[in-house]
């Protein structure tokens, strides 16, 4: 028997825990602790514990598939590549769109970006960061000049006050939740504001439930209280911030007095005052948020408001402080860093900057040039264009994403995909999206390849190969290189290893310039920015100065605006959506993990006990939830742990898909949909 341990990085959340994969006779069979990672010190959550179970699922794709007469038939790689090349050559650049992936490595995101802009010459490339943290990238970039989590995971344990708003950290980033506990054991006060009494809320010294979509009012109220009591950091504000007077004038309005915000948010005025005092007087205060802040039509406003609060209290560039935007998927930070976005190349270098555009065009050496120096469509806009302007977009290449379960208003998403003339999906399973494809390419999972991923704290860590991909499946960067070659650009895709791709990317990306596999190949890895080979990396951003050219932070006066859809007589409840501890996103991996799926085999809708009584609904009863976009039958979970008037559904489950109900109203800047607030009604299901 051949037994070995291969250290790698978890494929699920953005925390970036390390563990060992146990490999027996060439196959991954288990996980074991790897204790040298400073992020998780050998601990993992249930998803990490069972991260081996889906790897050798019998559902893995093992051969290319081509759809003929509405049915998939197995094909050779050459047949698949020939068809892809023939079809993509027949479209104009602006008729093609690409979706990259927060699941695959940095190298593979870089390569799909190169394929899109260099081979297809399209400007339309995006990925699912649009659905989770697009508002973070836009909001924090406007505030600080850099759109990423400001501090590190380890730093959270050093904080003297931890304010969690819009994050269920203990279920979604459990090993970051561990840092909150460590901070608490070190004497920190923990504040959690959330519509649900989550496992995170249960750790709080001060918990308040509030109505989804009232974040700006709450944050303005806290800032108003801090200024009225003189708790702001006057030195930080005077030396490092612009826009204080305008911010002050806004947050001191009567609208944002605690008594008035109590009526908007449902948080008692006394709790708002206590939270303001704890945040305003703590030696350091860390703010943690996730998609409760970002997934709104005011997502960018929400993010800027968190930045305002942290600048006002001097908690930027300070240990134990920061705006800690907890990114969702394992490599969503990296996919953004790699330029899988419609407005930037790698490292957030703007597509419309002629010098940047020339730099990439020269380095890549495509004899017929690359895409125009113009911004492309965001994924949400792509789907709207498909339905609203049929024929404008004709072909799409999707790598490792599943919009048929993850996007808002699924009826609309399906209608959009049906408008495409040609769809290629590269994935490890025949997902709900892959079923709509014309060609499916069998890809590899994290355990089958080398590469890097960048966690929420900007730490760039390695994946290491533990087994071969199943059947004829291939490593994603190899597939992308071969598609490039099939399109006639073999010279631009000469790679023999992921490391060669990384080195090319790093040479073009200032924040990754100082990184290479040798430096990353150690437990602590490196945080970007890391501009040179003698630079130690940057766990905490904005020490001494922010990343704007003048070094200043920018405060933005923001007024509260309600969600796009609010409850009314017909749809009287607010629906919010999210994830649970045991599953991951669209469940393509966790629902094929026997242990995880046994724990939570299907979805549910959480209903407050009083609301359930008024509706005559019992716990576990099948109910019908309806919004203006669709209807879902789903088991009820009657609980006191959700605010009256608010309902919650996890979005992992195709048989009761929450996103049938959600609203695709968009933030005007980030184009992120409002997953966190739409109006629904819920009824008993009566026999017909
Ligand atoms: Fe994986 Fe996140 Fe769990 Fe760590 S906390 S084991 S990265 S899912």
Round the mean pLDDT to the nearest integer and report it. 96
DSSP strand tally: 28
The number of domains: 4
If helices are DSSP runs of H or I spanning 4 or more residues, what is the number of helices?
Answer: 25
Going across the biggest sheet, name each strand in turn.
5-4-16-15-14-6-7
CATH topology of the largest domain: Rossmann fold
Rg computed from alpha carbons, rounded to a whole number of angstroms: 24 Å
Q: What is the CATH architecture descriptor of the largest domain?
A: 3-Layer(aba) Sandwich
The largest sheet is: 7 strands, mixed
- Quickly name the level 1 CATH class of the largest domain: Alpha Beta
β-strand percent reads: 15-25%
Explain what you see:
This protein has 688 residues and is of the alpha/beta class. It has 4 domains: 3-49, ADC-like domains (N-terminal domain of TfIIb), CATH 2.20.25; 72-131 and 330-449 and 459-507, 3-Layer(aba) Sandwich (Rossmann fold), CATH 3.40.50; 141-325, 3-Layer(aba) Sandwich (Dimethylsulfoxide Reductase, domain 2); 573-684, Barwin-like endoglucanases (Beta Barrel), CATH 2.40.40. The chain is built from 25 helices and 28 strands. The strands form 7 sheets. It has a 7-stranded mixed beta sheet. Helix 5 (134-144) packs parallel to helix 15 (299-312) and helix 12 packs across helix 13 (269-281). The N and C termini lie far apart (60 Å). The mean pLDDT is 96. Bound molecules: iron/sulfur cluster. Iron/sulfur cluster binds next to helix 1 and helix 8. The site of iron/sulfur cluster (SF4) has 14 residues, from helix 1 and helix 8.
